[in-house]
Amino acid sequence: MGWEAPNVAREAPNAAREAPNITGRSEGSGAAGCVAGGGAMIGGMDDVVGRTWQFVEVAGVPVPPDEPHRSRPALTFAGDGQVYGTGGVNRLRGTWSWEDGTLTFGPVVTTLMAGTPEHTARERAVLELLGVRLHARVDGDALVLTDPGGRVSRLLPAPPGESEV
Prior knowledge:
This protein has one helix and ten strands; from the N terminus they run E-E-E-E-E-E-E-H-E-E-E. By secondary structure, it is mostly beta strands.
């Protein structure tokens, strides 16, 4: 099973767009509930924060292992509730919060660059994932995100030298 390329008209290159925000969070809510006094993360996010994570599976669909670095979706979680990375075509930035095993993302904005139909479709799946409440857990070396429909996305730590997105 692969991604289906969306039939979307593109705007001017490098223009910014906002990904859908259907988490029920208001703008500016930052990382509410994710940082305890002294900076320790609540709920096991210690292993996630401050690292870049590359998707190896998005909503149940594997990312090909030979995919070029620039085309691999990746996220970096900052301890202040910011998230940044790439959907595989465009850079993205937004906010995240963690509460009771649920990971939510606030408004996420992206650049608006053209990509291949396959990469654009995969990026659309990543952005849709960031628009819903996710069950998140660390399983061994993997960050495992499960959407409300039960589809699993897996992320692994980026190799050294590929950790800046």
